[in-house]
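Appendix B.2, paired examples.
Example (i):
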Amino acid sequence: MLTRSLAVFIVGLNCAVAAPKPLFESKLITPGTPRHSVDIDVDLSGAKELFLVVTDGGDGFNCDWADWAEPRLVLADGKEQKLTEIEWKSASSQWGKTRVNASAGGTTLRSAGADIAFGIGTHANSVIEFILPAGAKKFKARGALDEGGTRQGKGAGSVVFQVFTESPGPVVGKDGGGGSAAGHEPADAVAGFDIHPELTVQLFASEPMMQSPSSIDIDARGRVWVCEVVNYRSHNGERKEGDRILILEDTDHDGKADKSTVFHQGHDVDSAHGICVLGNRVIISCGDEVFSLYDDNGDDMADRKEVMFTKIGGAQHDHGIHAFHFGPDGRLYFNFGNAGKQLCDKAGNLITDIHGVKCTNQNNLPYQEGMVFRCELDGSNVELLAWNFRNNWEVAVDSFGTMWQSDNDDDGNKGVRINYVMEFGNYGYKDEKTGAGWQTPRIGMETEIPLRHWHQNDPGVIPNMLFTGAGSPTGMMVYEGDLLPSIFKG
C-alpha cells in the first residue's frame, strides 16, 4: 500500500571501487578545442597495465563519440608499436561499441574534418584495458572527438580523456552526471534523487535480487513485475538461459521487496522493453513481437504463450516496440519508435487498420517513423492513431482517454519533447510529403534546432506541448488520485 509520503522505485546497481589518480587527464575537449583533440604523452615506466578512459564533460554522454587517435607504445629499444596491434583485455562504452580503426558507430575514424590513420573508436563513458608488453616506456596518442558526434548539432560532444596504469574503478563524468556514478551501493541510491519536500523516496529492490530492469508494472496485489534484461546489444548472449520476467514482492509489508519469483525465463524475452500485467495475463513487448504469457494455474509461472503481433522490426533496439497500457475504454494502447517498421498479425500478415490504413511506415507516406496504436484486448480492431515520431515511449492514457508520451533520443540536439497525442495527428519528425529529415533545407526552416528537429513550421504538424531539452525520458504516467500532494494532482 502506498502512503502519502512514499514513492516506490526500482534501480539496477553496481558496487563502487575507489579510483586512483590518473597519470594523465585532459582538459574538457569540445568542438571549440583546436583540432578537436589533445596530445597525450605518458610515462609508463614499471607499469604492467594500461587503462584508457573517456568520460563525459558533465553535460551527459549524448554525442560523446571519442577516438584514441594514432595510439602507440614506445618500447625499451626506442621503437614504436601501434596499440591497435595489441588485443585489449576488456573494453566498454556507454553507447555503440569500442572498435579498432572505426568509430563507436562503425564509421571511418574522422576528427575536425580529417581522417585518422589508425586508432580506437569509443564513446563516453568508456574504459579500455590493456596488458602491456614487457619494457613499455611510453604511451603516445591524440584524444580526439569523432565527427560521428560533433556533426550531430551545434556544440555536440564534450569529453575528458584519462590514462591510468591501475584500474580506475567505476567511471564517472566530469560532474558526476551522465555515466556510472560513484557510490552505487544500494544504501547510497536515494541520495542521488532530487526529491520534492512533501515526498520521500524509498529503495524497493536492487541487485542482487534483480539486474538491469527495462520495464515494470504493478499488479492488483501490489507486486512489481520486472523485465530483467542482460542480453541486450553488445551483451546479447551473455545470459545463456535467456532473460527473465520477475515478480518482486514485499511479504512483510515494510516497503522493501523480500521475495523474487521467476515467472518466465528464455530467449523469447531477451531484451524485453515492455510489460503489462492484466490478471493472469502478462503482455510482453520484445524484439519484433508482442505476445502474452498466461498463468493458468496460479503458481506464478507462465504456462502458455499466445502471440499477438509479429514482424515489427527494431529487435535489440530501444526505438522498437514499447509497453502496452490498459485504457479506460477497455482497449490496449501502445507505440513503437522509428526502428519499428510495421505491425503484422500472428500469422505474419500486414495489418490494415479499421480505417483502411496499412500499419506500416515503409513507403506509406504520410504514415511514417514512430507510431501510436490502440486495439482490443485480443489484438483485433487495430487503429493507427498518430505517427511521425522519432522514439516515442510509454503512451499514457488518462480516465478521459487522452494520451501523452515522451518523444526522445535527440542525439545532442536538445529537442526532446512531451506530446499531447491528438488522434490522427502528424508529429513532424520527417517531412510529411517527401520524408526528408530535419536537416534538409526547406521553406520556413526554423532557426532553432529543437524546433527544426520536429518541422514545427510545416503546415499540418501538431505543435509540441513541451520541450524538455536534452536527455531521454522513457516513462510516463498520469496521476489522477488524491493521495499525493496537490502539486502532483492532475
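Example (ii):
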Amino acid sequence: MTIATHLEPGASLPRIRRIGFADLRAALASGLADFRDMPSHAVFLCLFYPIAGLFVGGVLLRENVVPLLFPLAAGFALIGPFAAVGLYELSRRRELGLDSSWQHAFDVLRSPARWSVLALGILLLAIFIAWLMTAQWLYAQTLGTVAPRTAVDFFRDAFTTGAGWRMIVWGIVIGFVFAVVAMSISVVSIPLLLDRHVSAAVAMLTSVRAVIENPAMMAIWGLIVAVALVAGSIPFLLGLAVVMPVLGHATWHLYRRVVNPD
C-alpha cells in the first residue's frame, strides 16, 4: 500500500485553513489519544532519543565541552519533525482504521515520498549543525575560547558575569531565529509528504504558507513544543520518551487541521 497517493504532480497547491487555540488543544488531545492507544510503539520508536542524548551529554562532559550541552538539547526541536516521521505514519494509519502496529512506522522507507522526506531531513540536520556552530562561535566571542574545566565553572561564568548574560541573551535571540526557520519549513511539510504526492519544495512552501496564515497560533504551538521539550529534558532527558511521541502524533493532527483535505 502506497503512502502518498492523493495529489498528482502539477495540481494546485494545498489550501491552508485559519485555525484557533481550540484546534491546538484538539491536536494535543488527539496526539495524547494516539499515544495511549499505541504507547509501547511510541516508546520503542522514541526511547533511543533520550538514550542518545544521555550518551552524547556524557561525551560532552568528558571531553570538557560543556558549553555545547544546552545547544545540543535545544537542537532536538530543530530535527524533531524529521525524527517523528514514523509517528506521523502510525497516526495516519490509525486515523484510517488500518493496522498501526509499530512495524508500520517503517512503511515510510517504502513510500514514494521517502527521498523527499530524506531531503527535508538533511536540510533540518544542516540547520541543526549550523545552530551548534553558531552557539560555539557565540561562546568564544563572549566567554573566550578556553572551555571551562567543570560544569560548575561554566554556570558561574554564564550567570554571574556580564559576558555570560550577553551570551545567554544573544543565544536566545539567535536560537529563536533558527527555530522560526526550522518550524516554518517543517511544521506540516513531512506529514504532507506522507499524505499526498507532492514534491519537497511544494511541501515546504505549504508549511511556510501555513505559518504566514496562522502566525499567532503557530507561535503558540512553537512555545508549547519548546516548553514540553524542556520539561521532558529535565529528568536527564528521559521524559522525552513520552513528550516526543505525544508531540509527534499531535503534529500529524495539527497538519490535518491546518491543511484543507484534498
